[in-house]
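INFO batch 0412 | record 1 of 1 | parsing
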Amino acid sequence: MDDELIETSEFSLHRRSLLPGKGFFYPDSLDEDRTEERIEDAVDGAEAVVITDSDADGLGCVALIREARDAALDVAPFEAALAAEMADDEPEDDETGEDEEEEAHERSTVALVASGPGDIEESLELVAKHVEDGTDLFVCDICPDSYEYIEDDLETLVERCSEVRWFDHHQWGEELEGSVRDAGVDLVIGDSEEECTTDVALRSLDYAFDDRYTELAEVTRDHDLWLKQDERSDDLADYAYWSGPEEYATVVGEYGAALPETVQAYVEHRRVEKERRIDAAVSRANHRQIGEWTVGFTYGRCSQNEVAEALRKDGCDGAVIVKPSGSASIRGSEGFERCHEVAGQVNGGGHPKAAGCKPDIYDDMLDMAQHWTTEGQAARTVIRRAFENLVEE
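INFO prediction complete | emitting tokens
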């Protein structure tokens, strides 16, 4: 394939917001080898390993764990690389700089394995395969879909590791929670309406953290629970999305929520494009009355939380943002707190006011092509039916 066909940073805003980032077009079969190499290299010689979601909440946990174990990296190389990137002023895409950052820093004795709800099975499998006996393991900000998917690898890790601790704040089923605890995992689940996972890590780690880490947890919570009372929380969320995981964990570990001027300038620079994508997605939205709820449906590669907030201000109780990759974000409000029930019907899950899913409706690239050219029509339909099912119940 010609690289120019997937270099979306060269496209118009309209076209690049309709298509997924170029990483989407990298086959999983090729990416698996790269993923295993990265994990094998990361855990080699590590005293502890953190498998975490790569958003601000999950990476905030990494910063806390490294601080507690005196394993924080030097922030200077990351700041220098960021300043150089700003000086180049190249067109930006949504992809992070994870590949580039591998050469920008030394390795921490607390290894970071970026994962997510859809990747946790593979992450546990590969860490179990390569981790050294006696290593400590932490899993943060991830709730697995089912225990059967992780059972063998988790039990192997409990046998091989010195300790296995799991911090989260999502909604766990009683059976799943019981099975993980019975496997020998120290599982701590915070109230998803009151705490983010960084809060959970802060109170669970036996370490006297100074005030900047308490503030980091508070500001992270403000965004993760969509409280929107501290404008700095958007800075953290955006920076976590645009930076590499190691960079974010190192910078907030050093500065907490008070991001340095270089990072603030970088975030503001990237927001120009972000705001244009938000406007495009909001302009595409249509509203549907489903039972007593008004639900806004839209499509695009954009910041789903800000789009959802705009739709709420426009009178929507719920918002569905279908993404070019095939997944979708579902956001609620005071008038709709059943997002996790909608997502649970469509191969997903989450919180009452925030959830995600990826409908199992894409069999081949022709289906994906139709998805892009119809702005997610098939995905919108199955998610709308999930809302309707709640009305029928």
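INFO post-check: The chain has two domains: 3-274, 285-392.
INFO record closed
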